[in-house]
Amino acid sequence: MTQTSHFSVKKLATLSGVSIRTLHYYDKIGLLPAERRSSGYRIYSQDHALRLQQILLQKSMGLSLEAIKQALDADDFDATAQLKTQRAFLVERAEDMRAMIAAVDATLAKAGEVSSEDLSALFGGFDPALYAEEAEQRWAQTDAFKTSRRRTKSYTDADWTKIKSEEATIWTDAAAAMTSGATCDSEAAGKLSERHRQHIDQWYYGISGTAYAALGDLWESDARFIANIDAYAEGLTGWFAEAARHKYLTI
Predict the structure, then answer these.
(1) Phi, psi at 205, each rounded to 5°
(2) Residues 61, 28: contact at Cβ < 8 Å?
(3) Are 237 and 230 in contact (CB under 8 A)?
(4) How many CB atoms lie within 10 A of CB 84?
(5) What are phi and psi for residue 7, nearest 5 degrees?
(6) Contact residues for 146 (Cβ-Cβ < 8 A; gap 6+)
(7) N or C terminus of the chain: which is more exposed, having fewer CB within 10 Å?
(8) Distance, first Cα to last Cα, the chain
């Protein structure tokens, strides 16, 4: 692409919706290496913007940052072919989302026929059990999955009510912190990340800080996580993922 302009990291962050901290991280790991002014300031071109678009598209398809970097740096990488494949994927996912919306609308239409307790269960936070088959296909051989499955088999309805309530409280508190102006690198954000890490550690499987920070990529790459987390506040998924990375990763 012909490069007709250059812009700052702040401008690219504004255009893309990706935080400045994330762009710095992408630069450091070589995923989106910036150019440098003599003063040391990062600058970006239109080609950088196109590469960032690819990064975001491939993340939305569930690829890791390492896999994305390998794909983009490959000698035979074809941006046009990739965009066509990604468009087909997005169209298919849009159809799935429309089906999910129709299912929600149907449930809402029958809301008067169920109790308030049932409604709370229906519209609670993300429930891993909803995607148990997919989770088993992707992570069945991991120790974390095996531990989580072993623990959750013994949980009672009261346990699940407590788990969902705790998680909902964490997301609600995070939404309040974000909307009140707390930054991803604030003490408040760090404490929320630790609360959520401990929640997973207590109820599902033991998880280190580094492993927890890596979950941020999963949250941001899966529309289902985004929909459930952002239900508490728009943009909360990205904010919380950044908070986790700041808390547990040295960038």
Answers:
(1) -160, 155
(2) no
(3) yes
(4) 11
(5) -150, 165
(6) 140
(7) N
(8) 31
Scan for tokens 């904010």, then name that residue.
239
Q: How many CB atoms lie within 10 A of CB 169?
A: 13
Tens digits of per-residue pLDDT, 198-239? Answer: 998 899 888 888 888 888 888 888 777 888 888 888 899 999
Distance CA(246)–CA(165), nearest Å, equals: 26
42, β-bridge pairs: 36
Amino acid 23: pLDDT: 92
Mean pLDDT for 10-14 is 91
Higher-scoring residue by pLDDT: 169, 127: 169
Residues 6+ apart with CB under 8 A from 96: none
- What pLDDT does 124 receive? 37
126 neighbors 224 (Cβ within 8 angstroms): yes
User: Cα dist. 174→95, 97, 201 in Å?
Assistant: 31, 26, 19
